[in-house]
Structures are given as C-alpha cells and as structure tokens.
C-alpha cells in the first residue's frame, strides 16, 4: 500500500476526506483539521475526541520498545492531542491487532503501561476491540476529553505579533530515536536513559494545556508530533499567517547537545524536524508573554520558551546561526518517508 501512496502525503490523504465530507451538523464545532474534533454537547461543555495509532515497523520496532513502554506511549500520544486543545482527558478506548506469536507477558506489560499513563492523568479505559493481526502489532487509542466552550484552543487563532512558545525541550525524542537506531555517537548512561525515555515514554503536557486554557493565554496551540517546523506550519496555515522562528533559541537538553556533538550532527535538526517530542507549541499575544512565563513558572514550575513571532507574511522564516532564511518544511510523513 505504501508504494502506491508514496507520491501522496499523509496530509493530502486527510485532505481528500476533508473535501468530500459533508459540512458538520450543528453540534460539530470543529471537525477534521485540528488535534481533536470538538463537539457541542450542550451548555458550556465541549467534548473533545481524538484518535492515534501506533503501527509496528512504522512507529516502533518490536525489539526497540518494551510492551509496557508501548502501552504507555500509545495512550500518552493521544493525551497530548487533548492537551493541545487545552482539554482535560476523561476516557480512552483501545482497538488493537495482535500477532499470534505474542505471549501473555506482552499483553499484561502493555496493559500495565497503558493503565499507568491513565492513572497519571485520571483517564478511564472504557472499552475497545481486540483482533488478530497477520504480521504487525497495531495499537489504536481513541480518547475523549472535555473543556468549557471558551477554553478550547484551536490551531486557527494565531495573530500577527503573537509570540510563539514551546512548553519544554525539543529534540530529545529525535536524539532517542538516533540512539535506538544505533547510529553513531556516544553519551553517558544517564543521558542515554533520558533520551530513550523521551522517545519511548513521552509525557503529554496536559497541565500546561489546562493552565493556558483556563487563563485564556494562548491564541492557537498544537503538540509537537511531527517536528517544530511542520507543526508550526500547521498552525500558521490554519490561522492564515506566517512566522519567524529562531532556531538558535530552541530549548535543547544538554543530553541532546552531547549526543549531537559526538555524532557530528546539529541537535537543532532533531527539534526542527525530528518530531515526537509531544511538548506544546502555542502562540500568546505579546502583551501577555510575561504573564504566561510567570504563570507557568509559579503554577507548574515549568520554563516555557519564546522561540519566534507570528507574522503577517504567509511563510516561515528560520534564523540559524544569526542568519534568517526561508525554510523548506520537512517533518515526518508516514507515506513519503518510509526508510
Ligand atoms: Mg497533535
């Protein structure tokens, strides 16, 4: 299937459905094209719905992740999409395909990881579907969440002048993947654990999303699943704006920098296009930047980092080593980059 679709990207395929789908019924506040769909369920409440799938050999290798980590990650990447809307996750459903050679330890390990993530975010697992798969493990989670109408943060509200911020370090997951694929470069055992954990057990920023939503601080938001460039591109195209991104300001961990130096690569590239960091990328009006920095620090002990500015001109400019250049958008695309 991938060969036949290789000329077509993930986002083009989604577009084919988006164009053909009927206009939303009156309870559809937001349909295809954001981190979650948003439904009006009456009163002030909005229902958020998202689904995300992990497929063996596309998203993970069986000998590169433990069953427990796989269970944890399959839920956490979905919670990240709820976080990206400013929502509070509530319930999860697991649909998965299992190959005949798996054993009981795989199932209980996966269950324990998934339920650990669920407990951490007070989410209930309420059902699903279990089926056989011929050759690859597939785990698809669907997650529901809630928010008040005025709290929901979409990708569509960024305005020229807004400050672009990141909720935490980027590039650790890309560095972790670099290690998992046994590419060149050496780091300490502690750094290695940190980077692999970022890749295998990402922590969704649910509390940060809620804080920004409750205080109405962000005009637009997304979680960094495809890389800062690609995800910023989603926000600016949805909002009809552009952005200046300062790659020199990207928050990179010492561990990622150490590995990059040893491997002879630029750690910024892991942040820009590595993806799977699952930190929030959000836009804040300039006059609320200081308030945002202070609230994240005092309430969550979290240092959020300004990395750019929303512009009127509809393209993304990236500053690297002090020089501005227009940037080709290159994030992870499941059909176009299969290696
Ligand atoms: Mg997302």
Bound molecules: magnesium ion
Gross geometry: globular
Quickly give the structural class. alpha+beta
N/C terminus separation = 15 Å
Order of helices and strands: HHEEEHEHEEEHHHEHEHHEHEEE
Largest sheet data: 7 strands, mixed
Number of strands: 13
Mean pLDDT: 93
What does this structure look like?
With 339 residues, this protein is an alpha+beta fold. It has two domains: 2-151, 60s Ribosomal Protein L30, Chain: A (2-Layer Sandwich), CATH 3.30.1330.10; 163-326, Phosphoribosyl-aminoimidazole Synthetase, Chain A, domain 2. Helix content is 36%, strand content 24%. The protein has eleven helices and 13 strands. A seven-stranded mixed β-sheet has the order 8-10-7-11-9-12-13, sandwiched between helices. The protein has a six-stranded mixed β-sheet with strand order 1-2-3-6-4-5. α4 links the parallel β4 and β5. α3 packs parallel to α7, α5 (172-180) packs across α6 and α5 (172-180) packs across α10. It is globular, with a radius of gyration of 19 Å. Magnesium ion binds at residues 35, 81, 84, 222-223, 225.
Question: What characteristics describe this protein?
Answer:
339 residues; alpha+beta; 60s Ribosomal Protein L30, Chain: A; Phosphoribosyl-aminoimidazole Synthetase, Chain A, domain 2; seven-stranded mixed sheet
